[in-house]
Amino acid sequence: MNHILITGANGQLGRCLQDKAQLPEWNMHQFFYTDVDTLDICDKAQIERFVSEHSIDIIINAAAYTAVDKAEDDKDMAYKLNRDAVRNLAEVAKTYDCLLVHISTDYVFSGEACHPYKENDTPAPKSVYGASKLAGEQAVAEVGCRAIIIRTSWLYSEYGRNFVKTMLQLGRERDEVSVVCDQIGGPTYAGDLAQAVMLCVAEDAEHEGVHIYNYANEGVISWYDFAKAIMEISGNQCAVRPIFTGEYPAKATRPAYSVFNLRKVKEKFGISIPYWRDSLMLIINKLSDK
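Now predict its structure.
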């Protein structure tokens, strides 16, 4: 039986990880769910006490500063959560020989590629958020604990605030919405990512070194295509108008191309990754039932 700590447990991925942990195949393990009110990961001494007192074997870090535009003006806090707190977790994981599973992002790349990004492509973030997340990855590598880093993109779920829920709300309130058509990537349902994280833990809990994997749902679309699909699947009559990035001013630069090569994670763990539209239909149906 493993003792598994999940940080950021109240976020989208954290909530989905809690759902997966309730499944019968995980009954043999003991899970500990924390957020900032129960464990401040910016405080290394707190992490050490928690890991020691609960004999933690695996740490899944789903906590992060994710306010992309706000980070441009709140650089210190973005780095505190996305780099310094991650270093704390990595150092404690190394001391207590825990496996650290850390979630990162497509924003570590420039978005200027013309091919799906592989794990070993050179990062070149264009925003404070992306740079702070890359710094977190680098902190894990520098500490040298046993770690799995999973980069993901365009995360959404039935929990919290996200693009899908925003589009559904706007679709009920407006006759038309404008969505950028020149940013391309892969949506990721947090429930699918949570399943992948659990499979990685089950298959590789004893591994050595630091390994990076990409994970997103299968398929490539623009935000405009994604919004169109949301309206169509939900039966909403709201029109979606395509616009270019320059017509939608934002403080932080978004990657224009956030497509991942998913071969590594599929071959390593034997993961079958759902197609983005199938997962989107699942979530819209869940939200409709609620």
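The chain has a mean pLDDT of 96.
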